[in-house]
Amino acid sequence: MPRTLEGQITMEKTPSYFVTKEAPKRIYNMSRDTKLIVVVRNPVTRAISDYTQTLSKNPTIPSFQALAFKNISTGLIDTTWSAVRIGIYAKHLDSWLQYFPLSKFLFVSGERLVSDPAGEMGRVQDFLGLKRVVTDKHFYFNETKGFPCLKKPEGSSRPRCLGKSKGRPHPKIDGQVVQRLQEFYRPFNMKFYQMTGQDFGWD
């Protein structure tokens, strides 16, 4: 990490830290004052999105259903598949809470980032002790992408949207597969809600 001067905030973004076993201890040893922002979304949607990303790079991979289940007839979910495992948020948070108190975390809703980006960004700015500079005038909804894009309020530059890999249409997944995954995640979601004191409304 670069040295941070007085009045500066140094940020680093690596989504895999949340699910990497060694990360909490290493970050704690680097700086126990680190503030942690975790963006989460419905784990079923997240798994399908993960699969869509992989499929775009490798169109020959097995179907979502084949990867998600150890045994489709019994409905046994394969928790060794990373697309499924990452969404068990309560388990990952457990590891972090061994090193950092809950007060060091801000849990951002991926769904609300789309429906109310300014509101979620307001929470982020408050959490970091920053003046609320980013507001609703910085966002507009992009119909093609299906989510908000950034614009400079003065209109001095072109709007900035996330790259081509974001907002891809997801493949059609059988309704029963989605339902089984929802059932699988429900107890983990409930535990996550209790741990964070936040209901993300995934159930």
UniProtKB/TrEMBL annotation:
Disulfide bonds join 149-161. It is an enzyme of class 2 (transferase). Signal peptide: none annotated. InterPro entries: NST/OST, P-loop_NTPase, Sulfotransferase_dom. The keyword Transcription does not apply. Its EC number is 2.8.2.-. Gene3D superfamilies: P-loop containing nucleotide triphosphate hydrolases. The keyword Disulfide bond applies. One of its GO terms (molecular function) is [heparan sulfate]-glucosamine 3-sulfotransferase activity. It comes from the Eukaryota. Belongs to the sulfotransferase 1 family. PANTHER family: HEPARAN SULFATE GLUCOSAMINE 3-O-SULFOTRANSFERASE 6, HEPARAN SULFATE SULFOTRANSFERASE. This is Sulfotransferase. It comes from Alligator mississippiensis (American alligator).
